[in-house]
């Protein structure tokens, strides 16, 4: 049964998993939507709804209805399996009628196209026609994507977490005795049929990660490590500065609950500048919507095939780093990450969406940017390579010290919005170390020249924030500190 079967189809938001269309909707366009769902995370089209009113399916002729039932093999290449669920409704004519729920599963090794060889992808609530370059990226990513659907032969039903399984049953209103009937259609189990047509089942990687009591027994890297450091850098040996460290394991939902509790307990309140009023406000170190979204994204979209790496949440005095194994999924880049969605693990993404952890389009990565801006914090930073995605959230550690000096607060408060990144960094370093040299600033802001560092310090001196200490105009030992 589809999760939408027991919901009000007129009020469900259209998004990456759901769309509503009239029974008279163009057949080729309908095929393109189903193709887009299949190439993305799977999804459902509710057919028989017009302008958020039930028109029903009975306005169609029998031939037209049959054409809809055959759309997967007549208008899609290769043939697309479409599950059709009939939901009884009362149409706008006050007659008993039906809405058809056309549901497709996400593809792994296949890339679906229409008869014109056009490929579509569901991005948010839109059906996006894929470019040639995007198509190549999607084809490359299919092998990685197939991992979550592989079976875990050693895992058995008794390995599942009873509490999570019970919640999952309630999500779908499932009351049957054979649990495989729920897990198989959702990609959490795989079915094998022998020569006598008797079915046997095995849990998939997605099924183990979502429902198993101890996923790391089968997928060793399926964990989250939390490390809290004292200071701005990780130290080793006798200088090791780890304050708190915890390894988190279990089904994904429980891991998310645990890391959220741990991190929330570690967060502080900072004084942050309101750029509109010039006054300082007390705010949490990071907005919860931003850091939680970052962790959920890591859990949802990481490459679980990377067995030698795990998700890491690293907390420093000045920033929070969330490390996710594996590069960005196909068609997603640093430039389009705010508006483009593509799941490397669509079955995991769907399950976490149903559990309420993954948000619909428009609230994901874009929410991280929005929430950070609302808290007067810098934009998130994404550092990406082929092996990992690293999200960096910076706090306002500078602002804590402003409360100690009213004169300095008023002066910097007036000029803060006019300062550039390198100047703000210089103030941050001085608050921690007391002084700063030009060479130290250049090292702290990767990619900037010595002249940029020198000009930043000169400007801070000019506006009365820094004073220069030197025995001679060109002294190599000169440094800057805050004015008294």
Automatic annotation (TrEMBL):
<dbReference type="Pfam" id="PF13749">
    <property type="entry name" value="HATPase_c_4"/>
</dbReference>
<keyword id="KW-0347">Helicase</keyword>
<keyword id="KW-0378">Hydrolase</keyword>
<keyword id="KW-0547">Nucleotide-binding</keyword>
<dbReference type="InterPro" id="IPR038475">
    <property type="entry name" value="RecG_C_sf"/>
</dbReference>
<protein>
    <submittedName>
        <fullName>ATP-dependent DNA helicase RecG</fullName>
    </submittedName>
</protein>
<dbReference type="InterPro" id="IPR007421">
    <property type="entry name" value="Schlafen_AlbA_2_dom"/>
</dbReference>
<dbReference type="InterPro" id="IPR038461">
    <property type="entry name" value="Schlafen_AlbA_2_dom_sf"/>
</dbReference>
<keyword id="KW-0067">ATP-binding</keyword>
<feature type="domain" description="Schlafen AlbA-2">
    <location>
        <begin position="14"/>
        <end position="130"/>
    </location>
</feature>
<dbReference type="GO" id="GO:0004386">
    <property type="term" value="F:helicase activity"/>
</dbReference>
<dbReference type="Pfam" id="PF04326">
    <property type="entry name" value="SLFN_AlbA_2"/>
</dbReference>
């Amino acid at each position: 049964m589809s999760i939408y079967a027991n919901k009000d189809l007129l009020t469900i938001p259209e998004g990456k998993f759901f769309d509503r269309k009239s029974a008279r909707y163009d057949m080729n366009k309908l095929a393109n939507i189903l193709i887009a769902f299949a190439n993305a995370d799977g999804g459902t089209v509710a057919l028989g709804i017009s302008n958020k009113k039930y028109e029903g399916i009975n306005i169609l002729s029998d031939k037209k209805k049959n054409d809809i039932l055959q759309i997967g093999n007549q208008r899609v290449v290769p043939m697309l399996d479409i599950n059709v669920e009939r939901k009884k409704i009362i149409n706008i004519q006050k007659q008993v009628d039906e809405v058809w729920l056309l549901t497709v599963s996400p593809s792994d090794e296949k890339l679906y196209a229409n008869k014109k060889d056009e490929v579509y992808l569901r991005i948010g609530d839109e059906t996006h026609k894929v470019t040639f370059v995007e198509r190549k990226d999607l084809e490359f990513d299919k092998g990685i994507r197939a991992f979550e659907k592989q079976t875990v032969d050693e895992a058995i039903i008794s390995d599942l977490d009873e509490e999570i399984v019970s919640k999952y049953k309630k999500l779908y209103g499932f009351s049957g005795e054979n649990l495989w009937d729920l897990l198989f259609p959702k990609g959490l189990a795989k079915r094998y049929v022998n020569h006598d047509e008797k079915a046997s089942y095995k849990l998939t990687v997605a099924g183990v990660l979502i429902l198993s009591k101890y996923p790391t027994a089968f997928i060793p890297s399926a964990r989250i490590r939390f490390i809290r450091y004292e200071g701005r850098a990780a130290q080793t040996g006798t200088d090791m500065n780890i304050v708190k460290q915890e390894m988190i394991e279990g089904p994904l939902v429980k891991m998310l609950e645990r890391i959220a509790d741990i991190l929330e307990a570690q967060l502080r309140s900072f004084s942050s500048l309101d750029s509109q009023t010039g006054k300082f406000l007390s705010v949490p170190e990071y907005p919860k919507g931003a850091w939680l979204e970052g962790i959920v994204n890591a859990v949802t979209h990481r490459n679980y095939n990377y067995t030698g790496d795990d998700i890491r949440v690293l907390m420093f005095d000045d920033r929070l780093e969330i490390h996710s194994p594996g590069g960005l999924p196909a068609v997603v880049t640093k430039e389009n990450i705010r508006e483009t969605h593509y799941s490397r693990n669509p079955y995991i993404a769907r399950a976490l969406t149903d559990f309420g952890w993954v948000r619909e389009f428009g609230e994901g990565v874009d929410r991280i940017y929005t929430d950070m801006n609302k808290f007067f914090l810098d934009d998130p930073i994404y550092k990406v390579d082929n092996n990992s995605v690293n999200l960096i959230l910076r706090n306002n550690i500078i602002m804590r010290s402003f409360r100690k000096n009213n004169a300095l607060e008023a002066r910097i408060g007036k000029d803060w919005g006019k300062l550039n990144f390198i100047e703000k960094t210089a103030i941050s370093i001085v608050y921690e170390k007391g002084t700063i040299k030009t060479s130290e600033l250049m090292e702290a802001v990767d990619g900037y020249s010595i002249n940029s560092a020198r000009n930043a310090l000169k400007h801070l001196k000019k506006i009365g924030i820094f004073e220069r200490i030197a025995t001679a105009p060109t002294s190599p030992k000169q440094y800057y500190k805050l004015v008294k």
